[in-house]
Specification:
Belongs to the beta sliding clamp family. Forms a ring-shaped head-to-tail homodimer around DNA. Keywords: Cytoplasm, DNA replication, DNA-binding, DNA-directed DNA polymerase, Nucleotidyltransferase, Transferase. The protein has 382 residues and is of the alpha+beta class. It folds into three domains: 113 residues, DNA Polymerase III, Chain A, domain 2; 125 residues, DNA Polymerase III, Chain A, domain 2, CATH 3.10.150; 125 residues, DNA Polymerase III, subunit A, domain 2 (DNA Polymerase III, Chain A, domain 2, Roll). It is 16% helix and 42% strand. It has six helices and 27 strands. Helix 1 packs antiparallel against helix 2 and helix 3 packs antiparallel against helix 4. The relative contact order is 0.11. About 2% of the residues have low confidence.
Length: 382
């Protein structure tokens, strides 16, 4: 095996493949990164931990095709710190040699014949623009659970129905959901799966902008999902597909509806949170024309700030964990947000208000921008 490749190209590809390498592998070969080059000048780097596989494909100047398995994390550290010169990689005896300008490293190879066969993705289900997919995944994943004893809650629920895709996460105290349009291979395709949130978030964030993301998903007993785009691909085992009926909880009858300027509201919440301790909420008192934002830590510190808002319906005093509010507001990319409440102890819905099209327009009449964030308030003690 011998090939030559641009250093930055190699660094990006190695970083992608290294994302799946386990810190404590069940088998020594799973700590390896597979390097494969063919006669057509294609370089493939891959990592696999039996749950998630990641592959990166790039063009290279190939002198001799071949494949080798090397310690993956060490290769990633080396490539990340190489000088800005083209990189030559070749096998020499039991070593893979990495040469870049004046720097040279030798890595002892692992037995490539013992490396497990990489899983092949299911059939192509459809495509979605990378930028749209990455933004949608970033909006919902902050609400995913962190408790591994409840694996379903650590995932992203992906529902596909015709040209509509829903992504949703919940940790039982909040639900973040995003509706978007995608291009299915079969207009009648439907599916509902749960994908590990951390895996999907890393994948969506790393795929090159401007690319098309392909979703590979089978039916029946298929337990894999494939996501690929821009020369990068991954497969992941699916989690148990049992999930709450989240969409039914994102509608309701609201007695108080506030329209809030997002950027000033975010800054005010951050300031109020400075005086809170863990578990201390930020209180929001909505009255006609304003919201008063309050927080306190016993008698040692307090914050109080007012912000102009538009309120329709009843005055309301409601409290939230500040980070829950900030996570929801981070998913809104419009100038104004809508907070809909049905009482101080019932879940409240946060959505974006579509920006007006020109100076003569009033706010768009559309209900929201496709992103919905439902959060349980903190019950205030009298």
């Amino acid at each position: 095996m011998e090939f030559r490749v641009d250093r930055q190209t190699l660094a990006d590809a190695v970083a992608w493949a290294a994302r799946t390498l386990p810190a404590r592998p069940a088998l020594p070969v799973l700590a390896g990164m597979l390097i494969d080059v063919n006669e057509q000048g294609e370089l493939t780097l891959a990592g696999f931990d039996y749950e998630v596989s990641a592959r990166a494909r790039e063009d290279a100047d190939v002198t001799e095709p071949g494949r080798a398995l090397v310690p993956g994390r060490l290769l990633a550290d080396i490539v990340r710190n190489l000088p800005p010169h083209p990189v030559e990689i070749f096998t020499k005896g039991s070593e893979v040699v990495v040469r870049c300008g004046p720097a040279e490293f030798g890595l002892l190879t692992l037995p490539v014949e013992d490396y497990p066969t990489l899983p092949e993705p299911p059939a192509r289900a459809g495509t979605v623009p990378a930028d749209l997919f990455a933004a949608a995944v970033a909006q919902v994943t902050p609400a995913a659970g962190r408790d591994d004893t409840l694996p379903m809650l650590t995932g992203v629920r992906v529902d596909l129905d015709g040209d509509t895709m829903w992504l949703a996460c919940t940790d039982r105290y909040r639900i973040a959901a995003r509706e978007l349009t995608w291009s299915p291979a079969d207009p009648d395709f439907t599916a509902g799966v749960v994908v590990p949130a951390r895996t999907l978030a890393d994948t969506a964030k790393a795929i090159k902008r401007g690319a098309e993301v392909a979703i590979d998903l089978g039916g029946g007993a298929d337990t894999l999902i494939g996501v690929s785009g821009g020369g990068r691909s991954m497969t992941s085992r699916l989690l148990d597909d049992q999930y709450i009926n989240y969409r039914s909880r994102l509608t309701g009858t609201w007695s108080s509806v506030a329209e809030i300027p997002v950027a000033p509201f975010v800054e005010a919440i951050k300031r109020a949170a400075l005086v809170t301790e863990r578990g201390t909420p930020v209180q929001l008192a909505f009255t006609s024309g304003e919201v008063r934002i309050r927080a306190a830590t016993g008698d040692s510190a307090r914050a109080n700030e007012s912000l102009a808002v538009e309120l329709t319906g009843d005055d309301i005093d409601i409290a939230f964990a500040p980070q829950y509010l900030l996570d929801g507001l981070a998913g809104i990319d419009t100038e104004y947000a809508r907070l809909e409440c049905a009482g101080p102890t019932k879940a409240a819905l946060l959505t974006g208000i579509p920006d007006k099209k020109d100076s003569d327009d009033t706010k768009d009449d559309a209900t929201d921008t496709g992103f919905r964030y439902l959060a349980m308030p903190v019950r205030l003690t009298p």
